[in-house]
Design a protein that fits this description.
- The complex is a heterodimer of chains A (158) and B (170).
- Chain A has one domain: Roll (Thiol Ester Dehydrase, Chain A), CATH 3.10.129.
- Helix content of chain A is 22%, strand content 31%.
- Chain A contains three helices and five strands.
- With 170 residues, chain B is of the alpha+beta class.
- Chain B has one domain: Thiol Ester Dehydrase, Chain A.
- In chain B, strand 5 and strand 6 form a beta hairpin.
- Chain B is elongated.
- Chain B contains five helices and six strands.
- The chains are: A alpha+beta (158), B alpha+beta (170).
- At the A-B interface, helix 1, helix 3 and strand 2 of A face helix 2, helix 4 and strand 2 of B.
Chain lengths: 158, 170
């Protein structure tokens, strides 16, 4: 079994480790292709500038989501199971930007089905500007032998 | 622009575009997605770990929309297909040539497993009155996309907020 985070190791107010990623054109295009998004504002700079009025091509929505998932499960380990994720893109991320993810634990709870949950707030920033705000609810094992991935139906309340 | 066309009003709350994915959930795309964000979670890369933790290979939950994004070209198609067709229907019907997505919420239920053939449909939840932002003047809309597996089990609900707009003339 790979290392895992359990609910008793988490406290409200706790900070998640910071993650920084330098974005270039390949980063944006790779994310667009990986998410099967062929729209030109994610690979064609002229189109992005002329049609969208942005300064360059930009990271697309599912690529944003994939980064948030990676950030969360880098911290939880493989037994962390996402219940839901919500994010608001206030500004775009462009080639040349350095994305920095910072997160903190807002809530630690156990639901009526006995599933342990952590509520997170995560901010994606470029320089001083927050480009995307995210909240997420992720299930963690309550004890070392517990596994949220085995929950189904009424036992899983995301 | 202040009044919504009757045709568009009637779309709100209707189930639209029920469809089956064009292909089964497969590991090649899972690896490509994980690689694109350097996600080393072993449940996606190591079958032994996947068997132990998730009862077999699964897809990253946030990949859900990927399984319904159409090929840019396929036989018999003369126009490129677009994902999230209701979003494009609204752009066209409301004469708003540009659009961006602002909010995205995804709720995850049953894991999506390698070999699954997923089904989906879309629902327009709301359309705002005209608004002006730094991008231009247009309307916000909220769309839900529901996803199920081949057994009829819900795997995810995705909600988007989009903003369709016309750029201000300079």
């Amino acid at each position: 079994m790979t290392a895992q985070l359990t609910l008793d190791q988490v406290k409200e107010g706790q900070a998640l480790p910071e993650l920084a990623i330098d974005v270039d054109v390949t980063t944006v295009v790779l994310g667009a292709l990986a998410s099967r998004d062929w729209r030109p504002m994610h690979h064609d700079k002229d189109f992005a500038q002329e049609r969208n009025g942005t300064r360059h091509i930009f990271v697309n929505t599912p690529h944003n989501a994939a980064y948030f998932e990676r950030y969360i499960t880098d911290w939880t380990g493989p037994t962390g199971r996402l219940g839901h994720i919500k994010f608001r893109m206030k500004d775009s991320v462009f080639p040349g930007d350095r994305m920095v993810f910072r997160g903190q634990v807002d809530k630690v709870e156990t639901d009526a089905a006995g599933c342990g949950w952590v509520g997170l707030t995560i901010r994606l920033a470029v320089g001083d500007k927050t480009t995307t705000e995210c909240t997420a609810r992720v299930a963690l094992p309550s004890t070392e032998g517990d596994n949220p991935w085995k929950r189904k139906g009424e036992q899983w309340r995301p | 622009m202040s009044e919504l066309p009757e045709e568009v009003k009637a779309w709100i709350g209707q189930e639209k575009y029920r469809e089956e994915g064009e292909f089964d959930v497969e590991r090649g795309y899972i690896f490509t997605s994980c690689s694109s964000v350097e996600n080393g979670n072993p449940i996606f890369w190591d079958e032994k770990v996947a068997d132990e933790i998730t009862g077999g290979c699964i897809a990253p939950p946030t990949m859900i929309s990927v399984w319904f994004r159409p090929h840019q070209w396929s036989p018999g198609r003369s126009e490129p297909a677009v994902p999230l067709q209701t979003h494009f229907d609204l752009k066209k019907a409301l004469d708003l040539p540009e659009a961006v997505m602002t909010d995205n919420t995804i709720v995850f239920y049953e894991p999506v497993r390698v070999g699954d053939r997923l089904h989906t449909y879309q629902v327009i939840r709301s359309i705002s009155a005209p608004k002006t932002t730094k991008l231009g003047t247009g309307r916000f809309w909220e769309l839900d996309v529901e996803y199920e597996n081949q057994n009829g089990e819900k795997v995810a609900t995705e909600s988007y907020t989009g903003f369709g707009y016309k750029r201000e003339k300079k």
